[in-house]
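STRUCTURE:
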């Protein structure tokens, strides 16, 4: 992909953030915050996530392996969770994810990866058994069963990247396909419809639960993983049919027009019954619920199915998010999840996938805005919502390269 991005300025901004986060002892100037998200083995907010920034820079020859190693050591410090609720963003699977990236460039980490991978395999098998039992009972899924951050879509993203033709990967893909098969008693709602609110818990504002489109907590992650499996050449009966069932639902709820398409982040049971989503409910173009994520999932689905129209609509959606000042104003934050870095990187990934010059031409403007915001204030160092994630997006844009195993697999973008 060609890009008009001012690479020196972009890389300089990424370097500045990385330099400020070089020492695990000083990365949190006011002390590491309390809570599980900041635990070392948390990919979202802990040392694990910041390690990913330094691993990616070291792999590119732009950072120090000594610094990357220091952060890896900080990430694996203490007891590592391999409980049934461990996931791509926490515990052994999160550490296996970052270690796989390090081991792709250094044999130093192969033994650690083997141990973490074994723990992740065990977690995945337990989670799969529980999920299939739930389907056998014809019950609706809890959010943590299949979403990206807590669930089996996230574990599927890891295994597809780590060993695409392994038995556990096929078992995971078979589960994601089964997730899309009709369940009795849903009255026209999809089988991944949840009885809970978007928080993952029951709430009076969602008496009939909700249907979630997003990559963080919704069916978008399953769509992305299934589509990538088909693109990678994984041969498993039912993959294309499962992708088609998800696409049929997202097509039904696509809003706007062919030039300005968008998808809701979620719908309620009442909206499903009314067959209507008000235009004011258009989500901001973030990765977690908005166009940064949903458009990429649609592009991947179009590429997997050979559907050029779907690819074009997806790319129009991300272009609309990049060009519309009103949409841009909804992203004042810097982060990958809720902010500019997520849109910047998703757009870069989409432009790279199909060598789309229109998308590439919009990236420098957003990069400049992100850099200016980074320079205005101090920011949390974390990966998902903070400076480390913004630096990774800028590093990737500036180098115009994100080699396999891809760092953005944890976002279901590659």
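SEQUENCE:
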């Amino acid at each position: 992909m060609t890009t008009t991005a001012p690479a020196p300025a972009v890389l300089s901004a990424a370097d500045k953030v990385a330099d400020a986060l070089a020492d695990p002892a000083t990365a949190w100037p006011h002390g590491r915050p309390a809570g599980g998200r900041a635990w070392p083995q948390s990919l979202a907010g802990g040392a694990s996530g910041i390690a990913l920034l330094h691993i990616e820079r070291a792999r590119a020859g732009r950072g120090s392996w000594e610094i990357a190693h220091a952060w890896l050591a900080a990430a694996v410090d203490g007891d590592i969770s391999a409980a049934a609720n461990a996931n791509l963003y926490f515990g052994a699977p999160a550490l296996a994810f970052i270690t796989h990236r390090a081991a792709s460039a250094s044999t130093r980490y192969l033994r650690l990866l083997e141990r973490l991978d074994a723990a992740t395999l065990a977690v995945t098998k337990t989670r799969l058994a529980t999920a299939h039992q739930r389907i056998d009972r014809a019950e609706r899924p809890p959010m943590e069963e299949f979403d990206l951050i807590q669930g089996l879509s996230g574990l599927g993203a890891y295994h597809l990247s780590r060993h695409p033709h392994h038995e556990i990967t096929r078992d995971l893909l078979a589960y994601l396909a089964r997730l899309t098969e009709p369940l009795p008693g849903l009255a026209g709602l999809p089988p991944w419809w949840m009885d809970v609110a978007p928080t993952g818990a029951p709430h009076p504002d969602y008496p009939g639960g909700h249907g979630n489109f997003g990559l963080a907590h919704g069916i978008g992650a399953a769509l992305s993983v299934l589509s990538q499996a088909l693109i990678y050449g994984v041969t498993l009966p039912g993959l294309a049919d499962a992708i088609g069932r998800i696409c049929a639902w997202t097509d039904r709820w696509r809003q706007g027009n062919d030039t300005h398409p968008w998808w809701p982040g979620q719908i309620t049971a009442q909206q499903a019954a009314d067959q209507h989503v008000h235009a004011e409910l258009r989500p901001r173009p973030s990765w977690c619920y908005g166009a940064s994520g949903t458009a990429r999932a649609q592009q991947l689905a179009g590429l997997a199915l050979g559907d050029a129209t779907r690819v074009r609509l997806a790319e129009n959606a991300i272009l609309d998010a990049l060009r519309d000042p009103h949409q841009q104003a909804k992203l004042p934050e810097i982060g990958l999840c809720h902010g500019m870095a997520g849109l910047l990187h998703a757009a870069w990934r989409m432009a790279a996938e199909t060598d789309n010059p229109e998308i590439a031409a919009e990236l420098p403007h957003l990069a400049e805005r992100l850099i200016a915001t980074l320079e205005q204030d101090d920011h949390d160092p974390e990966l998902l919502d903070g400076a480390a994630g913004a630096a990774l997006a800028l590093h990737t844009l500036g180098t115009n390269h994100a080699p396999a195993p891809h760092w953005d697999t944890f976002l279901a973008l590659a």
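REMARK: The CA atoms of residues 31 and 87 lie 26 Å apart.
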